[in-house]
Amino acid sequence: MRLSGLTVRFGLWFVISVVCAIAQPISQVTAEDRIHSRSKSPFETPPQLRARVDFWKDVFTRYGKFDLIVHHRMFPQAVFHVERLEYIVEAMSPADQERFVAFQEAALKRDVAEVLRFLERGGKPFSRFEQRIDQAMKLVPGGPEKFSRAIQDDLIRVQRGIRERHQEAVRRAGRYLPYIEDIFYREGLPIELTRIPFIESSFDYEATSSVGAAGIWQFMKGTARSYMTVNSLIDERRDPFIASRAAAKYLREAYFRLGSWPLAIVSYNHGVAGVAKKVSQLGLDDMAEIVEHPTQRPFGFASTNFYPEFLAALEIYNERHSLFPGLEDEPALSFRSFELSTAQTGPALARRLGVPVAQLASLNLALNSAVWRGQAQVPRGYRIFVPTQVAPETISFVSYEKTPQRTTSRNAVRPTPANKGNSASPRVHRVRPGESLSGIAARYKTSVSRLCAINKCQKNRQAVSGEILKVP
User: Fold this and answer.
1) Rounded Cα distance, 224 and 249, in Å
2) pLDDT tens column, 293-349
3) Tens of pLDDT along 136-151?
């Protein structure tokens, strides 16, 4: 009877499918269509990942730097024990704190391993410590062999909490995040992608990793040179605007190649080719299925957890004021910008602008420290950011701008066709649907007044889709 019911339902489904296919033309849905046609966020946490995402939310918001979370490496939601050391180490020197915490980490791993051996032999958990480990192992797929495997394969791991660091990251993000969101919006990409720097760099604008990745988006030099200028004087990985445009371009390309945003996000940590290869080998393209696969682990710990960490950071930012009571976002950066028509050292430029060298350096992160020590010059044509209190007359005097100058790569990830050709010709921008004069001015690091002065237009008029505007 059940088989007959299934057969009937399948027959009805088949007839309806045929009728619909005849009634409607076949359409080709491209990756570009998928980007712009979504009606809701593509980053809802799947039920399969809920426990893992909650683990990372706890790491980011509940536990501090002296809290040790002992967990299973492959399934971190299986938490064996949490040791809180803050009140023990608070009177120690930083060096003694590190030594003590490292000693405790090793001791906790040994204690957990001993209990796992006991449980593997059929022992009944008695203490709360043993009961917690026994309950955690029920979250790990497999039979009795999973106990010995956890020991033999070094699957007992200790994670320190980062509440303090993540709270500071959320506060610090306010400086540039509104501009970064605007960049991604204008590129037609999900705004949620702008939360990746929370797990890449904690929005530390001066971050440099042990392997040489730099800036809030943590670009490696090799990858960065495909999108921006990286040399001995200028490292645009550290410029939040240019690096964000580069990240948007990279993620768009990764999405087109891999076909989904979760895979594109993981590729930011593992590389597009690496993700494509692993997906092909595993025969799966759903990140939840890949991450929670009971036996296979195609990525290392960092890449496997990159997407769950992203989802955790996304939820935390949306809930930041309840998770971090009293938190105040850093105000969005306010600045002016102009191009230099003559090369100048950093100290000379700061002196002429009446701005402290340190303040000017903090606004122009892509310039090498040698510039600010006076050992190198800011090149001609480079666009400089200055505080808003610097008067336009001062900027005009310092910049020596007589005619529009050709801009450098600071204004775009790569030159567009409109930028190529005779360097003496002004650049142009074709207005896209929905763009405004203020948005175009922000994109090119200029003001609406200057944009309208070049194009002889009224500041309060609307931009017309398809029109050509000269841009400084």
Assistant:
1) 11
2) 988 888 999 999 999 999 999 999 999 999 999 999 999 988 888 888 889 999 999
3) 999 999 999 999 999 9
Write out the two tokens for 403. 């005619």
CATH number for the segment(s) 165-323: 1.10.530.10
Residue 450: CB partners within 8 Å, gap ≥ 6?
Answer: 441, 472
* Radius of gyration over every alpha carbon of the chain, rounded to an integer in angstroms: 27
Domain regions of the chain by residue span? 66-160, 165-323
Averaged pLDDT of the chain:
84
Planar angle of CA 449, 454, 455, nearest 5 degrees: 95
CA distance 397 to 399: 6
- In this prediction, residue 400 carries a pLDDT of 53
As a whole number of angstroms, the distance between CA 267 and CA 73 comes to 21
Residues whose CB falls within 8 Å of the CB of residue 27, separated by 6 or more in sequence, listed in order: none
CB 259 within 8 A of CB 232: no
Q: Rounded to an integer, what distance in angstroms lies between the CA atom of residue 229 and that of residue 236? A: 6
- 72 forms beta bridges with 156
Place of tokens 């405004």: 436
Question: Closest by alpha carbon to 88, among 58, 67, 59?
Answer: 67
- Cα angle for residues 427, 429, 432 (degrees, 5° grid): 170
Q: How confident is the model at residue 465 (pLDDT cuts 50, 70, 90)?
A: low
> Tokens standing for 65?
């730097």
Output b/e per residue, 315-344; b: 16+ Cβ within 10 A.
bbbeebeebbeeeeeeeebeebbbbbeeeb
Q: Is the pLDDT confidence value at 40 over 50?
A: yes
Of residues 312, 296, 315, 268, the one with CA closest to residue 75: 296
